[in-house]
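This section describes the prediction task in plain terms. A model, or a person checking by hand, is given the sequence of a single protein chain and must write out its three-dimensional structure as a string of tokens. No templates, partner chains or ligands are provided. The sample shown here is typical of the held-out split.
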Amino acid sequence: MLSLQGVRKSYGNREVVCGVDLELRAGECFGLLGPNGAGKTTTLRLALGLSDPDSGVIELLDYPIPQRAREARVRVGVLPQLDNLDPDFTVAENLLVYGRYFGLAAAQIAPRIPELLQFAGLEGRADSRIQTLSGGMKRRLSLARALINDPDLIVLDEPTTGLDPQARHLIWERLKQLVARGKTILLTTHFMDEAERLCHRVAVMDNGRIIAQGTPRELIARFIEPAVVEVFGDTAQAWADESGKLVCDRLERIGETVFCYVRDDNRVLATLGNGEEPRYLHRRANLEDVFLKLTGRDLRD
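The expected answer:
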């Protein structure tokens, strides 16, 4: 569905995409993860033919990119990071006008509108103005708009940022439905639980390079001990100095919290007593642990 081989892109003296290799398989949800400034959005723009690479080979739906990007994009749906719905049109008019950009006739688009509104949970809102919609409604409408051309590949740039839990879960269910119908999804997100829940495979990107790639479970098993104990409270640091360093396979101190990564969690729990002090959270390792280990915990702007 999408292939990037040795793709590079620089702006001035700064190389922001540094020899990226990626392949998307038909019918999968693929997650492209990375901190701010990692090069994810530039990679998406290159893949869609919106920016020209300095070197490398890109194929999108068997079309060479950027040479035949317009033809390839006819079969692609894009949900941008920021909603760009037209406030001058109603909900239905936004879908109709966007479908016309793909060369579809109004007679082709009209039957799809009720189906897409139902998919987005916006039944009965066809004549509503955009200004009357909540943030979650606008995001769901943007997703519906991305499907107006019945695309084979759907590119989603942070689809649930800013949404409440109910809206996030609804969009997750809709994305699962799309994959079940045979659609292919390329997803960027800062929510690691979202990537772990939705994606068949993920790639972690940092400083313009792919630094890890595989299924979420493969990456967790490869990079992180199976159990994590987060110890916090007034006595957490004292516990780390006295007991933690003896029972943890790997120990990180972030502010007042001590992260204990361990293979034998029983040894750790035995040193913590009933949990009154220090307090702790005992859990299994997850994709966020992988992400933080590979990209660091420093704040990115």
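For orientation: The mean pLDDT is 94.
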